[in-house]
Amino acid sequence: MLPYTPHEQIYNVPNFLTFTRILSTPALGYFILHDQTVPALALLVAAGITDVLDGWIARKWKLQTVVGSVVDPMADKLLVTVLTVSLAMKGLLPVWLTVIILGRDVGLAISAIWYRYISLPPPKTFMRYWNFSLPSAEVRPTTISKVNTLLQLGLITASTAAPILPIGEAAMVAAQYTVAVTTIWSGLSYVFSKNAVKILKQYGEGRGKGDGENGNDGKGDIKQ
Question: Would you indicate the residue range of the signal peptide (predicted)?
Answer without folding.
Answer: none
